[in-house]
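New to this. Please check this record:
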Amino acid sequence: MPDKRPPRNPSCLSEEDYLSPESIPDTPQTRSASFRPAYADTDFLLRDELRPVRFQLELLKPELLMREQGITATIVVFGSTRISEPAEARCRLDQAQVAATTNPADADLARAVQIAERIAAKSHYYEQARELGRLITEESASGTGVSAVVNTGSGYGIMEAANRGAHDAGGKSIGLNIILPREQYPNAYVTPELCFQFQYFALRKMHFLLRAIALVVFPGGYGTLDELFETLTLIQTRKMKPLPVLLFGREYWQRIINFEALVEEGSIDQEEYELFQYVDTPEQAWNIINEFYSA
């Protein structure tokens, strides 16, 4: 049946026509940035005055999508991006040793060998984080203990290992990526529908803790320490309910931080020292988490 509608004429467009994108004429007015809808105007959204709106968006997007995915409880795994799996760590150590051999007088190359040796010595933590991710995911699916989804910072090293363990078990896992000057990209084992990117550390850390029922903190650097101490502070000040905070690798943590000295100096109380526990195996960590919630 032929179309009997009159030809499109700007002087007689309907309201529906005015709302359709193809009806918008190309004029200096419509090309102006001020004419763009606010939600489609990136330059406008990135203004300093719009920071509160961006905060809200970074809070709401992961919140709504995780809710739609049925995520109600997570076990957060923190740790260094620099602790790789043993084979890769050994390869990097070999490369550092070869470089140092070619120039024995270079102090920087000698130091690089020492650091590579230390990282290789810690590479077993990668395998333990992977096993923990697998254990959490399999046991959660079986219903024999608490039910939770692995949540990491989405990067490489320890975070990749935990996501990989969940992937090994055929389950989903979360990755909360952060935009950095030297770009950090999500590892290949994060569930794509649960892979988020943040501009603001504050909102990212909030999403680490909103659904957390436990934190397992593997050896790491500034970022790991920041996340650990913020969590301990929130529990200490009763801004969040107590939950298991497990420092994985007693030898590492007792060498890096003298928590006992904080008690001796009166900087924290003995009960605040007891807000965390040391663990050395995935099974030990999982048992402590289950015992905490079965009490």
Q: What stands out?
A: The two ends are 74 Å apart (CA to CA).
